[in-house]
């Protein structure tokens, strides 16, 4: 590269590309001795949408629970430059929007409004701001009409959308979804894919739905037995039959 | 997919009672129950007045006059526990049983006590049924919270109401799975021994407990992930309007009349 170009680049971006997520050599074992993570290192740039795939028990969910300190292992994790430690947990949790696999676990409040308001309220925002955020989040997932509904009356697809709204209302730095398309009928799944495509957020999405991965994510990370075994262009990885076979995956 | 709406007691309708502030409804219901409990044994006139009060609430709520009446029979089995009052209260003997070596004597005061207990529980439940039929769960929880019921209790009630239907669905799935494999061959006795069946039922109950326990962990994680730090927060949407104050005032007056009638005032 020409020296002038380098100089221009340096001036234009004095700091390196901002990273939403940095994980360095993360290890974790459950209290019963089961080792779930054996040194996971991952970097996700701001605005990037990354799929996390791998067989059940590979450590995907365990890894996701490390990102906002619900499980604490060995190693270093930073969310937008903020290291995850006991002291920083409240800020970290405002930055990581974690959506659990089963929306019945995520939607625990009596009404949709209260559930979406839960995060913003706990961030200490004033009531007007909370209401505005709830309205905006429900709008984003096209669920504005469900404001006063009770969660047990909703369909699976509706619950998933509202579960996503509950973290969108917190305006997180990174959206972390655990198997969002599991248990959805084709129409609800299609709606979810449109929704994820339209959200201008950094995303880390664990899934078994490789058809969705091919459609939605440029980058794919394969985990197996607590390690990242492949990380690269989705198309390239999905074309590598030997790699997919070795980790119990099937190309769509 | 199964839908169990075990606790969906709410009846959607537009009525004066539905529109009342939920706090007023909770307070009125509690006042009514306390008033009923305070009525002395055999105050039939006051019981009748209370009954008319409960009926008018049902009527105003457009539930139909018999709605609360029909549902209130659920208390009967519990109220029957009070049947021992007949033989436990001293008074004029009405009848006598010889059982083995002991004599059991039923008294008039005992019968009055028993019938009064029956009337009290039955009236109280009717009012509670009107409350739950005209107030949805979120409003009820708000009302409790605003009436300074400890947060933890309100949260427990809230979680229970939220997850009981989930739990019931899970139980229904377990039962269905057992049924699907409870097959019989023709000309052969099956079904296993009662002991074995009891053990299966025990395992199912244990399963249900473990699943709920694990779910509680996941729910708590979901709360932590969104910043829960031990305190439940809520936005206050309730405001007392004029008709709420009126409803409260009318109830207090009506219950005072009931008490005066029941406690024997004016003396005579």
Short précis:
The complex is a heterodimer of chains A (252) and B (268). Chain A has 252 residues and is of the alpha/beta class.
Describe the structure.
The complex is a heterodimer of chains A (252) and B (268). With 252 residues, chain A is α/β, with parallel strands linked by helices. Chain A has a domain at 17-102 and 173-246: Rossmann fold (3-Layer(aba) Sandwich). In chain A, 39% of the residues lie in helices and 25% in strands. Chain A contains eleven helices and ten strands. Chain A has helices at residues 3-12, 60-66, 89-95, 103-106, 112-122, 127-140, 156-168, 186-198, 210-216, 234-239, 241-246; strands at residues 19-29, 35-45, 49-53, 74-79, 82-83, 96-99, 174-178, 202-206, 219-224, 227-233. In chain A, α5 crosses α6 (127-140), α5 (112-122) runs parallel beside α7 and α6 crosses α7. Chain A starts with a helix and ends in a 6-residue tail after the last helix. By secondary structure, chain B is mainly α. Chain B folds into two domains: 16-136 and 239-262, no CATH class; 149-179 and 198-237, no CATH class. Helices cover 65% and strands 5% of the residues of chain B. Chain B has eleven helices and two strands. Chain B has helices at residues 16-19, 22-38, 44-60, 65-71, 76-79, 85-88, 108-134, 137-146, 151-180, 194-225, 242-262, and strands at residues 93-99, 102-107. In chain B, β1 and β2 form a beta hairpin. The radius of gyration of chain B is 25 Å and the shape is flat. Chain B starts with 15 loop residues before the first helix and ends in a 6-residue tail after the last helix. Chain A binds chain B through residues 65, 68, 70, 90, 93-94, 96, 98, 100, 102, 104-106, 108-111, 114, 117-119, 121-123, 127, 130-131, 148, 150-152, 156, 166-167, 170, and chain B through 1, 3, 5, 136-138, 141, 158-159, 161-163, 165-166, 215, 218-219, 221-229, 233-235.
């Amino acid at each position: 590269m020409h020296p002038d170009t380098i100089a221009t680049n340096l001036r234009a971006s004095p700091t390196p590309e901002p990273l939403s997520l940095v994980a360095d050599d993360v290890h974790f074992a459950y209290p019963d001795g089961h080792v779930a993570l054996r040194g996971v290192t991952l970097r996700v740039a701001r605005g990037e949408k990354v799929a996390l795939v791998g067989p059940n028990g590979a450590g995907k969910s365990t890894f996701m629970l490390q990102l906002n300190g619900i499980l604490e292992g060995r190693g270093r994790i930073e969310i937008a430059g903020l290291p995850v430690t006991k002291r920083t947990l409240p800020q970290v949790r405002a930055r990581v929007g974690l959506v659990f696999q089963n929306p019945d676990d995520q939607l625990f409040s009596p009404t949709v409004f209260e559930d979406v308001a839960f995060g913003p309220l706990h961030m200490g925002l004033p009531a007007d701001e909370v209401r505005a955020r709830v309205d905006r989040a429900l709008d984003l997932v096209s669920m504005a009409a469900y404001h006063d509904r009770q969660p047990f009356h909703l369909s699976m697809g509706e619950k998933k959308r509202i579960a996503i709204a509950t973290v969108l209302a917190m305006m997180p730095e990174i959206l972390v979804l655990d198997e969002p398309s599991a248990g959805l009928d084709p129409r609800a799944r299609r709606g979810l894919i449109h929704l994820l495509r339209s959200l201008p957020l950094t995303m880390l999405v664990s899934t078994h739905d490789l058809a969705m991965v091919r459609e939605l994510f440029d980058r794919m990370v394969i985990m197996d037995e607590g390690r990242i075994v492949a990380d690269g262009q989705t198309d390239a990885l999905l074309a590598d039959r030997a790699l997919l076979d070795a980790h119990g995956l099937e190309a769509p | 997919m199964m839908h169990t709406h075990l606790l969906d007691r709410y009846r959607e309708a537009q009525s004066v009672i539905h529109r009342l502030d939920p706090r007023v409804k909770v307070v009125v219901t509690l006042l009514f129950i306390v008033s009923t409990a305070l009525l002395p044994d055999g105050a039939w006139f006051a019981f009748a007045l209370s009954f008319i009060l409960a009926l008018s609430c049902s009527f105003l709520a457009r539930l139909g006059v018999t709605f609360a009446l029909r549902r209130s029979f659920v208390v009967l089995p519990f109220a029957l526990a009070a049947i021992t009052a007949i033989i436990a209260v001293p008074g004029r003997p009405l009848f006598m049983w010889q059982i083995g070596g002991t004599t059991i004597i039923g008294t008039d005061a005992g019968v009055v006590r028993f019938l009064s207990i029956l009337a009290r529980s039955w009236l109280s439940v009717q009012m509670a049924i009107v409350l739950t039929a005209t107030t949805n769960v979120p409003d009820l929880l708000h009302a409790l919270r605003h009436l300074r019921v400890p947060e933890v209790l309100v949260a427990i009630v809230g979680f229970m109401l939220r997850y009981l239907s989930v739990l019931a669905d899970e139980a229904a799935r377990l039962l269905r799975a057992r049924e699907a494999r409870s097959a019989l061959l023709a000309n052969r006795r099956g079904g296993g021994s009662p002991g074995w069946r009891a053990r299966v039922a025990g395992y199912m109950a244990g399963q249900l407990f473990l699943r709920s326990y694990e779910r509680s962990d996941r729910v708590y994680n979901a709360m932590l992930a969104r910043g829960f730090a031990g305190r439940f927060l809520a936005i206050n949407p309730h405001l007392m309007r004029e008709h709420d104050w009126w409803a409260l005032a009318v109830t207090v007056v009506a219950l005072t009349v009931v008490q005066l009638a029941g406690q024997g005032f004016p003396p005579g």
